Amino acid sequence: MTEPAKLYFEDVELGDEIGPAIISVSDEQVVDFCSLWGNPAPNRFTDQEQAEKVGLAEPIVPGIMSMALVSRVLTDWAGAETLADLDLVFRGTIPHNQPLHIGLLISDTEQDESGNHVQCDITMTGPVPDRPYIIGTAQLNLPSRS
Amino acid sequence: MTTYLDLHCHSVASDDSRATVEQYLKFVNVLRKRGYTIDGIVLTEHRKFDFDVDYSQLASEYGVMVLKGAELDTCFGHMLVYNITRGLAKDIDFGDVKMDGRELIKAARHHGGLVVPAHPGRFGIGLVEYMEQGESFDDVWIVERVNAGSKPEENERAQELCQRTGYLGIAGSDAHLASHIGRAVTEFKGDIRNEPQLVDGLLSGDFRPIYIEETAATPVG
Q1: Record: contact B27-A135, CB cut-off 8 A
Q2: How does pLDDT run across A99-126, given as a tens digit for each residue?
Q3: B210 and B46 in contact (C-beta within 8 Å)?
Q4: Closest-CA residue in chain A for B148?
Q5: What would the pLDDT profile of B76-122 be if each residue is shown by its tens digit?
Q6: What sign does the CA torsion over A17, A21, A22, A27 have?
């Protein structure tokens, strides 16, 4: 038996805001991610000295880990099978152990022969109003109720 | 007659934007449904200007004015340029990221355009930094006082600059995403329908920078 979809095209409307989801990335999580990724510690993502060598004030969250975190927020909301494209622009370094606010906003909806397409604008910021660490968009293909 | 324009935004023609012009226009109508007023947007693509692209059909379809300008990199920070003519494009290399900002300001006025320094309070790259280093800008009298993409303290620096110098201020969203369009707009006391009228409106000095919330006839939310 097929499970019902988490989210249908008819459930979203242009301008809808989702979140923000608030997460934090610990030092240990970055070390684990780097190990799985094949970039074992110490490196600029895990080690203060290595970070300073490349001009960073402190170790940062790897970009592909941030992409994974954003992907998870999207798929937790809409379902794993819906994410068709993720396009992020990194505008700042992302710190460990700080609240990261990931907000989604429906910026376009379109139905055509190829499916039911939804575009989400994405921002990742710190806890205070500031320039985002990340901006970007995601394309989701959602099922229709009809 | 009052005209509300977002004087600073980037479409996918800029390398770091992820919004199409049509998505911006759709979102302007979302803002209108929420009770806000916005008459149009001015596309200010990074380091380029396309004379051939025509948004009049889209503008008509969505009922939103679309004007064109540019945001150019200069040795004194980013500068917004309005009413770009072929003469200006012939005299200035828009892709030159080290161009002399003062020369750009003079050239734009010579060709009927106007230059407004963007996000002057931004740390590291704003006009304030250069003024603190002793540079002076006799031909500047309008700056982007509110940039919705800047940090609050950077907009405060821009406000302090205006208070200190008497500069007038405009506002723009600096949107790179569809949902960021219109967050800050410039309110003009007058009817503006094209780029030459925009320059006239700026030269008149009869405008003010505001956040979109201030355009609501009644408080929203």
Answers
A1: no
A2: 999 999 999 999 999 999 999 999 999 9
A3: no
A4: A131
A5: 999 999 999 999 999 999 999 999 999 999 999 999 999 999 999 99
A6: negative
The full set of domains in chain B, from first to last, is 2-215 (3.20.20.140)
Q: How many domains does chain A have?
A: 1
Write the CB contacts of A146 (distance below 8 Å, at least 6 apart in sequence): A10
A1 pLDDT higher than 60: no
d(CA B176, CA B62): 20
Note whether B175 and B38 are within 8 A (CB). no
Which of B179, B180, B183, B211 would you mutate first to test chain A, the one with the most A CBs within 10 A? B179
Q: Does B58 touch chain A (CB under 8 A)?
A: no
Asked if residue A2 is part of any domain, the answer here is no
Question: Residue A17 sits in which domain range?
Answer: 12-142
- Dist CA B47 CA B97 (whole Å): 8
Contacts of B151 in chain A (CB under 8 A): 129-131
Of A89, A123, A129, the CB nearest to B152: A129
* ipTM of the complex, rounded to two decimals: 0.88
CA A86 to chain centre: 9
What CATH number is attached to the domain comprising A22?
3.10.129.10
Please give the C-alpha separations between residue B198 and each of A145, B93, B112, B142, in angstroms, as whole numbers: 47, 23, 11, 13
